Structure formats: C-alpha cells, structure tokens
Amino acid sequence: MTPRLTREVVARFKALGVHQMAISLDGANPEAHDGFRGVEGTFALALKALDWAREVGLMTQVNTTVSQRTWRELPGIAEILAAKGVATWEVFFLVPVGRGALLDQLSPQEYEEVMHLLYDLSRRYPFKVRTTEGPMFRRVALERKRKEGGEDGALVGEGRGIHLSDGFGFVFVFSTGEVYPSGFLPLSAGNVRERPLLEIYRESPLFQELRNKALLKGKCGLCEYREIRGGSRARAWAETGDYLAADPRCAHTPGQMPLA
C-alpha cells in the first residue's frame, strides 16, 4: 500500500472504467499485517481503500500470501473481506524464489489443512476464493463437493474448466520483454521484441512441455487429478530444480480417492 492511494484516486479509478481494484491483506489486525509487510500503517490504509472503493461502487479483490507467518490469519481475513463487500479473494501460496525465499513455507500436511479451510470459508462467505500456485485447492474442492453430493463441474471458487497454471493458459511478460510461464517461474521462453507473444506461447519448447501432463514426474505424473491441477511447476522448479518434478508440497497420494 502507498499513501498515494487516496479516496480521490479510487474515485478516479471508477471514473476511468477500472473493473476491479486489488489490495494486499496478509493479516487480520495491524500487528499481523504490518509486521509481515514491514511498514506500519498499511493495514489501516488497506481497510480505508476497501471502504473508498465500496463508496464509489468499484469491485475489489484482496490478495493474501500464505506462509507460516500468515496462514492462521485466514479466518480473520475472511471476516474482514465479508464485512467490506470484497468480490474476490486471491490466495497466493509461497514459492521460494526472490524475496519469497526468505519466508517459511507450510508443510504438505499444513497445505492440505489450509485447502480444506479455504473450501470451508468459500462455502461460508459470498466472495469467490481463488488460489495462485495452490492447485491442490481444486482437488480438495472436487473431493469435498463429491462427498456433499455436488456436481463435478461446479468447483467452488475455481469456476469451470481446466485449471490455469504456469505456462498453461497463463504467461508473464517482464518489463524487458522476456516471457515467463509465470512470475514465479523465471525461465524465459523468448522475448516479445523478437517473436510475437502468441508464437512464444504456442511453440516454445518450455511452454509445450509445461502443457504436456504426460511429462510430469513422480507422483504428479501418476496422479489421477493431473489434468485438472498437475501440481505447481514453479514450486517444483524452486525446490528441486526440475519444473516437471512432483510438487513437493502436495500431500495427496495418487489412487487414494477414485475419480468415480
């Protein structure tokens, strides 16, 4: 958050036709959020920004980073989102690259617990819940809905269709023009100054490998859910050096839950 974000600026966003404004919130109180962000006063400013957006009718999204320091804050953050009328909650699961390498990750068992918690919160509150680098959520949502007698196609918080992932329906273009599968997988597939973006996405060997689920290794390659999630390729690369390796933070054992 920046002090330059004022009520007038938010109103200007709305006037210019901005569809949705995203705000980061990593704790349910000033101590937790400001301590994580390292800047005093950002929690209070984040809540003010959400109020300003609501006043002018601008939709909002809240982004939360999940780590050992923040995951217990999730229920409290969800309450704030509901009270502020937030439309979407984007929950980012830590990939140990860049500054993220300094943060402590969850264990596979804690990842599983958080996914179930997010599913419960998505059922309790009206906002949409989405995950970034947390493909396990799609499996958990699918399994929970089946136990509840729901339809496979209507996954809570994830919409319908194939899950987007690193290089699969998603690209990240850096300021230099380098094209990466995501902001968390810093392997270049080309540069838009040299080749069209669509050509890079469709034809580069890196992107083609990431989209080919048959190439996945370890338990991700054996997983009955690989076509709808396939693990985090960015996390596999960050922790093992191989973007086709099994996601080290997934607790699922292939074959435990039959598809039908």
UniProtKB/TrEMBL annotation:
It comes from the Bacteria. Residues 168-223 form the 4Fe4S-binding SPASM domain. InterPro entries: 4Fe4S-binding_SPASM_dom, Aldolase_TIM, Radical_SAM_PqqE_MftC-like, rSAM_sf. Pfam families: SPASM. This is Radical SAM domain heme biosynthesis protein.
